[in-house]
Amino acid sequence: MTEYRNEITRTIFERRSTHHYLEKPVAREDLEFLVSCGIQAPNSRNLQPWFIACVQDKEILSAINKETVEGLKEKDPFRFSKPGYSVFGNAPAVFFILGERSVTTASIDCAFLGGNMVLAAQSIGLSSCVMNQPLIAFEGSRKDALLDMLKAPFGYTVRFALGVGYSDSEGERKPKERTERCVVYL
Length: 186
Ligand SMILES: Cc1cc2nc3c(=O)[nH]c(=O)nc-3n(C[C@H](O)[C@H](O)[C@H](O)COP(=O)(O)O)c2cc1C
Known about the structure:
This protein has helices at about 5-15, 30-40, 60-75, 75-80, 105-125, 145-150, and strands at about 50-55, 95-100, 125-130, 155-165. It is an alpha+beta fold. It has one domain (about 5-180): NADH Oxidase (3-Layer(aba) Sandwich), CATH 3.40.109.10. A four-stranded antiparallel beta sheet has the order 1-2-4-3. It is globular, with a radius of gyration of 17 Å. The model has no long low-confidence stretch (mean pLDDT about 95).
């Protein structure tokens, strides 16, 4: 049993990814709060080379999902041919985190931003999941149309998506235990 030293470390230990969400929408002020927390992240030279598209519009999510599933089906037809499959796990809100292509540290900067957001979500009772699967939609022939839907500024590419919502814990799988064999103290 881990001994939490404070509420922040409790939040770190208690956060787990969610793949199934209730239909309940997320309040706009909560979405804005997550963005405010995200942009406090450390980032190289304080360039803040990110752009965040917060999508609740079902048509946009469905267009990105469709394109993602098409791409995934090419790689694994058996797994992704189930009708109605959603890579977003029906999350009511999905943030698409874009990084400026010309900034070499943008991926790292965006990852720190996402880290802040998932912990902030956990701290206010929201569940979340980082997703790289939807990236495939932004590599296909409809990538420009999808970037337009996200109102992406020129020169930015999607680095990952982040679904948020209220967990429908039914069917949620338990992630494997963490191991501390990944460290050496010298
Ligand atoms: C870069 C990255 C990409 C991920 N992509 C996906 C994804 O496409 N679909 C998904 O269901 N989960 C995705 N995850 C969530 C991981 O599966 C999850 O973080 C991992 O199993 C550990 O579980 P936990 O987050 O509950 O601790 C991703 C996580 C990261 C950090």
